[in-house]
Amino acid sequence: MRAAALALFLCLPGISTAQQFPYRDSTLPTTRRVADLLGRMTIEEKFWQLYMTPGNLDDPSNDWSQGVLGLQIRVPDSTSARAHAERINAIQRYFVERTRLGVPIIPFEEGVHGLLTPGATVFPAAIGLAATWDTALMGRVANAIARETRSRGIRQVLSPVVNITRDPRWGRTEETYGEDHVLAGLMGGAFVRAFERAGLIATPKHFVANVGEGGRDSWPIELSERLLREVYFPPFESALRAGAQSIMTSYNSVDGVPATQSAWLLADILRGRWKFPGFVISDMSATGGAVVLHMTEPDAPAAAAHAWQSGLDVVFQSRWAEHQPYLEAVRQGLVPATTVDSAVARVLRAKFELGLFESPYADADSAARWNGSAEHRALALESARASLVLLRNERQMLPLNRTIPAIAVIGADAEATRLGGYSGPGVRPVSLLQSLRATLRGPVRFARGPGRTAVQGEVVPAGAFIGLKGEYFDGIDLSGSPRLVRNDERIDFAWTLSGPAEGLARDWYSVRWTGRITSSGRRLGVEGNDGYRLWIDGKMALDNARPRSFGTRFIPALAPGAHDLRLEYREPEGNGRIRLVWQARDDWRARIDSAVAVVRASSAAVIVAGIEEGEFRDRASLALSGHQEKLIEAVAATGKPVAVVIVGGSAVTMPWHEKVGAVLFAWYPGEVGGDAIADALLGEINPAGRLPITFPMSEGQLPLYYNHKPTGRGDDYVDLTGRPLFPFGFGLSYTTFEYSDLAIHGDGGPVFSVQARVQNSGALRGDEVVQLYLRDELATVARPVMQLAGFRRLTLAPGQSAVVEFKVTRDQLSLLDEQLDTVVEPGIWRVMVGSSSRDIRLKGEYTVR
To answer: What is the C-alpha R_g of the chain?
Structure first.
């Protein structure tokens, strides 16, 4: 049945076409139901249970009559939760009532820190939730996300991200739980348990390591089996032990083999060593990445066949139309029938165990009740408050007095409500500026400042061209007849995964653009890879024909009016990038001066600075982007008390930090983050978040993580220390805490307990995150200089104390010996309890006999 008729069917009364075959009998064991249904399926119906994609029933060119594993059903931002649930129900009804076997779909969505849909509550980004160091709170947040998810009829989330971040330049650091596998495993496990308890499928990703050298996303990794098993595998193991029924592979290659086609990862580790019974899905369009990126497969059918035979179950693509080569791999017998049946059986088992055959539809009233509810919004505020990390507070500048005569609030992020990657629009997001103006009695004076970006060039718009013709050549010397001639609207291209046109390779091509350009008197320039020449009115204006690097170059301002234009571009290596730009009109200096004037007229200043990052947006520099550092220095030079609030999902270098009174790291704090930040600045709450990643002093120190193994010599530089700016686990408070009475109890076996007393020795109520670290003093293989073994966040009133106890298990004392066997060796363990990895308050020893 073609999709052109689907809209009509959605409006008809339900007419069940499914007969009462054994697979529809809920009293039968799942294994029998799976076997019965599998035996009734055609090869095409089996394939579609191994395919998932964003989609709906609106496009008449898409044929869903044979079913599909699942759909990501997106709706406009104006859509209510109730309407979304009703939409999903309507689509589900088609598959249940209008396909031959009536197999329901698994509607899926992203849910890293809130369901990625309009009307859903947005909580702090995952890295902010990790900064709470509170697994119970993490579980409550996950419960709320799961409740909103299920209420809409969505039954799978492509979350959590349990990758380890050892280089904070990675743009996706914000999606993770940080650099430590213990913290990431506990947070990820708490997330997964909440979803699985709610009858949903959690999908930890990206198996196994999604970031490589230089903090580059999906960069090839060449990590030893020891390192993978010690650091990168454990969070995935924790998530699977918590009950995750699905797992997603990563885009990158692992030891030369794309993760999607790695039999070692998918068959030997997942299926063999870990006995994982669930289904494995690719990242979106990753299966074909072996063809166009890794170049380890000749074509998509071969890539699919290799992936399925290596242990992949489900191909995840971006559109229905991309299914054809994968279907052909199955039809042509490139994949053994037993392999197909095993993969389909795993998917069907999940659908039966979710109860989809008995209860496929959502309760739209429940969706309206829970999504964006007051209860969930209160939890979003609580978690945002708990995530804030106070990094500096000289002379107790914070908290600010509510009666402050006038305060200057500076920065684009003060009025913005950036929620971070993989988030919906939120429900009535609150900015810091809004919150302060609603709270303070005195004037709150705002200046936007220079913003987060420093733009050199603005793409010349289509309206500036007269007859722009592009000639595309198969070769780099612009010779012969062009392969393609077309009219281009503008020159703004980035050809990373393919060539510039059909029939052209991703490298070894050239392009000539000719036409006329109308100037208003601005400077014209070219941004891109070298290998280009620019002529204006027949005269050479730029000659960068010799390839060297990427950059932007300008010519003197053109006279107003129309000019002949010719731009030639050659790309011998691939990853072509070329843009024709006008020099940007950037008045950032004037905007800094305006901000300084606002500060001079105020009693104190709060600067809200931000980071530019995200998926496929890795950072070469950890400095605040644009001209924000100059803004901070200029404001600090006024002599007024200055607090800096940073909004972002990763580390920032701070050469300016000693010039300001306070630094508060807010992460992406969620939809009510503005209220949480205001509460911390004004002392309504006492910030107690802790860093889940190390903040370096300079990018030259990277990678810099606390649990490294001992160096063969030293770790300093001739021009810089090897120590961080702020260490893992660091965070200040408005009060102080004292540690005492360390006690270690055990009988010499590989299990013992550690106790310590913690007292609030200050004048304010506050939270302390007590952290336990261990070090193996002598081992047959090199071990980390220290390793987090436990933590507890507790709240203490002034003068109040509490005894904190940690249980150390055999697993925490085990290691991989030279043969990579897991053993516990006798010897002395250093026991360290403190407030961060660099602030150890108590030390002791325990001997394993």
So the answer is: 29
